[in-house]
Amino acid sequence: MFDRTDAHITTWAIAIILFFVALGLHRAGNAKAMKIVHMILRLFYILIIVTGALLFWKHQGIDPALYGVKGLVGIWVIAMFEIILVRLNKGKSTKVASILLVIALLIVLYLGFKLPLGINFLA
Ligand code: HEM
User: CB under 6 Å to ligand 1: residues?
Assistant: First the structure.
């Protein structure tokens, strides 16, 4: 948990899948199932933050600034997941939030894979 990134990767990978499942259920008009998937996704927000924070506290000394940015952009991704699903339910436009989600996701994946722990194909 503190030295390996597997648990963190598992939590955000499942969250991305749940986010798209929720989008699909919304499109299919299945509001009840979407609500359930959304609640499970919210649980995964907590798991992503906990696993990320455990890695952060132990290793941020390697590069505090970059680890700090990594954590903040990770929270930004979670915020965009939440904003998009809530706005869909309210029938509001999700265009800007979707663009911001793609940008945040690209940055967080880049930083995550660049930082020294775990997979480092960008190093
Ligand atoms: C959906 C949101 C997030 C995504 C997609 C994401 C993605 C990633 C990726 C791709 C890695 C690299 C894994 C590896 O190299 O094996 C990583 C590592 C890490 N993440 Fe996240 N993350 C997210 C949220 C967070 C949050 C909220 C925090 C802080 C609270 C955080 C802190 C970290 C730390 C400290 C590492 C280790 C960096 C290193 O490789 O040295 N992440 N994350």
Answer: 5, 8-9, 12, 15, 48-49, 52-53, 55-56, 59, 67, 70-71, 74-75, 77-78, 108-109, 112-113, 115-119
